[in-house]
Amino acid sequence: MGHISLNQVTKSFGDVNVIPPLDLEINDGEFVVFVGPSGCGKSTLLRLIAGLEDVTSGHIEIDGKDATEVPPAKRGLAMVFQSYALYPHMSVRKNIAFPLRMAKVDQAEQDRKIEAAAKALNLTDYLDRRPGQLSGGQRQRVAIGRAIVREPAAFLFDEPLSNLDAALRVNMRLEISELHQTLDTTMIYVTHDQVEAMTMADKIVVLRAGNIEQVGSPLELYRAPRNKFVAGFIGSPKMNFLTGATAAAHGAHTIGIRPEHIEISREAGAWKGKVGVSEHLGSDTFFHIPVADAEDTLTVRASGELGLERGEEVFLSPIMEHLHMFDAQGLAVR
Amino acid sequence: MATQHSRAAARIMMAPAVFLLLVWMLVPLTMTLYFSFKKYLPLRGGDLGWTGFDNYVRFVTSSSFWPSVQTTLVIVGGVLFITVILGIMLAVLLNQPMWGQGIVRILVIAPFFVMPTVSALVWKNMFMDPVNGLFAHLWKFFGAEPVQWLSQASLQSIVMIVSWQWLPFATLILLTAIQSLDREQLEAAEMDGAQPVQRFAFITLPHLGRAITIVILIQTIFLLAIFAEIFVTTGGAFGTRTLTYLIFQRVLESQNVGLGSAGGVYAIILANIVAIFLMRIVGKNLDA
Ligand SMILES: Nc1ncnc2c1ncn2[C@@H]1O[C@H](COP(=O)(O)OP(=O)(O)O)[C@@H](O)[C@H]1O
Ligand SMILES: [Mg+2]
């Protein structure tokens, strides 16, 4: 079980309205990612669901029951904090046992659950260490272990990977995805990193200033962003935007085209520009090319090496079926 | 401070300070040791030559010695107990967001700025005086017989006065420690189902371990030597004669410098015993 629904939820800190009225359905077993720029209210929203903050108005339902006034411990949700929030004076075993101890689970049952969690998370050899003696990735796993043993209705993660180095982050991303496959429990995951969102989510919730900009599967958001903000936020490198006469030629205020949807040619094409900086990744090359009417320099992806020199004049053509059009308000038009 | 050169420079720079500290410590210590082996009565013949361990034997065999050690330990223990317990409670309280927090914090720290002599006199004359004291009025208001604080409950009174003085110190150290507690830890515990009392016992208190250790160690050093509070209140009467006070009486009232010095050496030994004892119990908290 783990169906969560938010109904007209708002949150203000004093006069500052952080979450305007917001509706959201999170289905049982779903991996939902809240993504958005820093300070947009992702953590606040997660903490509202956890019960660590009181809603200013609106209702939160968990598994069909109104949980708005229910204290955090009684909501059956487990949270993994960005700082891990491990108890520094307790061994790994005691950390993981803490929620069980608070729930007065008997000792044999506790041991069984701890062993199982430690085995699943590769922590068996570290059970008697203190958190201070562990690496970042291990601490992260202890925090997850502490959440798992409670067998919660849903897991809440607040930017759990942001303190890890890049290589470890890729690993942990996979581990958390695998965990979701095995446990089949609802997970709500907060991040500002759209790559994490794209790779892990069943459903992405894009937030801006507390507002939900769009909800959908990663590919839905990639293929059909509802507005310019989502279009620019999802996808890497980000989508190119062009305005002015170039956009007007397509009957739009702004047009958007992803770097991977532009064809590059030495002979002929829709737009003309001189090659600026090139980034060679081996498999791909990214060219940055200033073009008339572009909001920024145009980023173009090419497979492999093209042998283009800096300053060389090239022609660019968008693949028409992947062209996104936006009106003056930034809303997508089809 | 890694290279040979910078280490040498550092040593030269520190030398004056180290030298000064050594002189500060060693001169009185050596003089105490020197006098403790002498029969030295300033008003009755002055330096009367070496006496070996005579002073040491006389000091311990005097009927006042063991009671004074006991009094010292009772005062130190009592004050530590009260200041640590109340200090933790006050720190927790002051850490709550509330109206007028700044003012309240300053008020709580204020007693620490009052000189021991002054605060002891204020307590003696304004609170504990059996006729005009505030407590006497309070007792009378409820129809009770006023307590003669400094004679009937002398030791408790001293403990109370000294605790009042040292409570701000304990509170301040513990408050800063509490403020450094990661809020997410408390929230994690809350989500794990810990009630407020359990959160305090399992998260806050262990976090305060090191600060409590520091409070205990520092206060012990100062409390072993309290003097002014006793001098201006009971003058060492009614069972409030600490080891420090006994030494004072031997040197100044009996004008026996040799005997007092031997007492001083005993005081050093006592302080070290207490220190070792405390380090055994709480010292492990200081390891990171
Ligand atoms: N306890 C608080 N008091 C006042 N303002 C807060 C508090 N917590 C968060 N905010 C504000 O709410 C906004 C959203 O914060 P947060 O949810 O932490 O953003 P995110 O996690 O998306 O980076 C920020 O502008 C932040 O300053
Ligand atoms: Mg955040």
From TrEMBL, chain A:
Gene3D superfamilies documented for this protein: 2.40.50.100, Nucleic acid-binding proteins (2.40.50.140), P-loop containing nucleotide triphosphate hydrolases (3.40.50.300)
PROSITE patterns membership: ABC_TRANSPORTER_1, ABC_TRANSPORTER_2
GO cellular component term, pick one: maltose transport complex
MF terms (GO), sorted A to Z: ABC-type maltose transporter activity; ATP binding; ATP hydrolysis activity
Domain ABC transporter: 4-234
Top-level division of the source organism's lineage: Bacteria
InterPro entries from the UniProt entry: AAA+_ATPase, ABC_transporter-like_ATP-bd, ABC_transporter-like_CS, ABC_transpr_MalK-like, ABC_transpr_MalK/UgpC-like, Mo/tungstate-bd_C_term_dom, NA-bd_OB-fold, P-loop_NTPase
UniProt keyword Nucleotide-binding present: yes
Keywords (A to Z) from UniProt: ATP-binding, Nucleotide-binding, Transport
Homology family: Belongs to the ABC transporter superfamily.
Name of protein: Sorbitol ABC transporter ATP-binding protein /mannitol ABC transporter ATP-binding protein
Organism this protein belongs to: Aliiruegeria haliotis
Lineage of the organism: Bacteria, Pseudomonadati, Pseudomonadota, Alphaproteobacteria, Rhodobacterales
TrEMBL record, chain B:
Membrane topology: Multi-pass membrane protein
Domain of life: Bacteria
Domain ABC transmembrane type-1: 69-278
Keyword Transcription regulation attached: no
InterPro entries on file: ABC_transporter_permease, MetI-like, MetI-like_sf
Pfam families given in the database record: BPD_transp_1
Gene Ontology BP term (one): transmembrane transport
Localisation per UniProt entry: Cell membrane
Chain segments annotated as transmembrane: 12-37, 73-94, 106-123, 158-178, 211-238, 258-282
PROSITE patterns in alphabetical order: ABC_TM1
Chief subcellular location: membrane
Keyword set, alphabetical order: Cell membrane, Membrane, Transmembrane, Transmembrane helix, Transport
GO cellular component, one term: plasma membrane
Family statement drawn from the similarity comment of this UniProt entry: Belongs to the binding-protein-dependent transport system permease family.
Protein name stated in the entry: Sorbitol ABC transporter membrane protein /mannitol ABC transporter membrane protein
